[in-house]
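Below is how a single chain appears once it has passed through the pipeline. First comes the sequence as given, then the structure the pipeline wrote out for it. We keep one example in the README because the format questions we get most often are answered faster by looking than by reading.
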Amino acid sequence: MKWITRERPKIDRIACPWLIKNFVDTEAEFIYVPKDQVFEKAEELNAIPYDILGAEYSHEGDFCTFDYIIKRHNLTDPAIGQIALIVRGADTDRFELSPQAAGLWAISAGLSYNIKDDHLQLSIGMKIYDALYSWAKYVHNEKHTWSPKI
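Resulting structure:
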């Protein structure tokens, strides 16, 4: 299926494709267009609009689009739930939700600033979310230790 959203992605518009591609639709294709063209192009291309006001796949109250996808597709992996809290905090400017939220926002904003090609940014962002998932799934309890005696 094709999925379409606003150009110049940050947080949700990178996190959602990662979630969709890995847990909802492995054949998904992602399209970025100017904000005012999302619904027109969605109809023209038979694509699902996401992370834009008026789309089914969008924010609900205090929850972001990433949260909606989890709910809509009944995803129950605890690691995804942990990432959802981070994404929600970063995407809604509520960094108190997770200690990692401000860092994810900083990485996302820097990535968007450095890379002007939306699909290249998505490709790199997917690797960042792969790493975040590995952290949440396998090593979130691991502590970084450093000894000044080394």
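Helices lie at 12-23, 38-45, 65-72, 78-91, 101-114, 118-139.

See the next section for the split statistics.
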